[in-house]
Amino acid sequence: MTPKLGVGDLVLGKVIEIQANGALLGFPGGEVGFLHASEVVEEGRGAGEKGLAVGQELLVKVIGFDRLERPTLSLRRVTDQDREAIAYHREAIEFRSALIARSAAPPVEEPGERIEWRLEAWLKATEAALGRLKRRRGARVSQEIELD
User: What pairs with residue 3 in β-bridges?
Assistant: First the structure.
């Protein structure tokens, strides 16, 4: 079951039916929302004239709820920033999946040759050097205080 939708939420839905005044969109979990024609296109054109087709996936924004607590949706109010955020989120999920798959795969190269392990060793060496520098600076500061 999908989490409860709220006003302003972005949702990816699939067109399940086109009507004269809009379209019904289905969401994972079986929930259905209504996309009114005025939230799809310019005045005087219907949802079917915009090019919506049954089975098409749309990114829509929840703008309210009807009397039966079903979400009312808007395609027109989805901003370019919203689209970019969703695209970034999808890329992050794909990247995470690729990293998980890569880490699960057996290493092809020698352990010292994998870039991840070399970076990890470099980070450890850098942290150790930074710790030594901080200790030396602390020792110098304490010596200056004792001399004063």
Answer: none
In the structure encoding, which two tokens stand for residue 113, read together? 């040759």
Tokens of 25: 């969109």
How many residues belong to the chain? 148
pLDDT digits (tens, 9 = 90+) for 39-82: 886 544 444 445 788 999 988 999 999 888 889 999 889 888 88
Beta pairing partners, 32: 26
Cα-Cα-Cα-Cα torsion 74, 76, 79, 80, nearest 10 degrees, comes to 130
**Distance between first and last Cα of the chain:** 70
12 pLDDT above the threshold of 80? yes
| Alpha-carbon separation of residue 66 from 7, 62, 72 (angstroms) | 12, 11, 7
Please state, in angstroms and rounded to a whole number, the distance separating the CA atoms of residues 95 and 71.
Answer: 32
What gap in Å lies between CA 71 and CA 5, rounded to an integer? 8
Count Cβ atoms within 10 A of the Cβ of residue 71 and give its class: 0-12 exposed, 13-18 middle, 19 or more buried: buried
3 state SS for 26-52: ECCCCCEEEEEHHHCCCCCCCCHHHCC
CA proximity to 55, closest of 93, 13, 88, 83? 13
